[in-house]
Give the backbone structure.
Amino acid sequence: MPAPDLKDVQALHRRVLSLVPDQLGEATRQAAGVLYRLERQPHAHTLLIQSTAPLNLDALPVGYAAATDERNTTPLLAWCRQGGSVRYRIDAVATASIGTQEVDEKGRRKRGRRIPLHGPDAITWWHHQAERAGLTPDPTTTRVSSQVDLARLERQRSHYRETHPIRRHRHHHRPPHTLRTAITTGIGRARAYGASLLSIAPLT
């Protein structure tokens, strides 16, 4: 994977969208349901891309990836059922909105300011988001990994501060349609920049 894609979230964003069919027009990412996550390891990195449209992997530069693997998520979505236990993984941007009493020239209250959440506040945020997505997290196994460095993202998109990688947690889930929606549409902010992709696997 070229260095620019690893170090620049805008470059990686453009790379991912270059694989999506051109005929989708404006709002390509939303039209194709594209979510992605870059998983960094000491000696290799894995780029996961989820899309409802076929991806043209031939558009990747020669030598970009050591290997590619395409999988159909339909069986996984069909598997989702009430009461199942799963492991999950997500990089999520945890933020809160601070309200304001200021009003604009039309007398409407101005939008609040978003601030990043850390530590226990980030975990509380995730538990709330997870429950909205139809999950019931197990607090004894909830863990937030070391935060991803998103300094470049912060400079380019000042209202996106950082992601919190949430790894291999155990939970049960509620009615399946809410979980399917969370998987296909993502959770949280910064979807265009590699956050919000929820990955699950049956817990065995």
Q: What stands out?
A: The chain is about 25% helix and 20% strand.
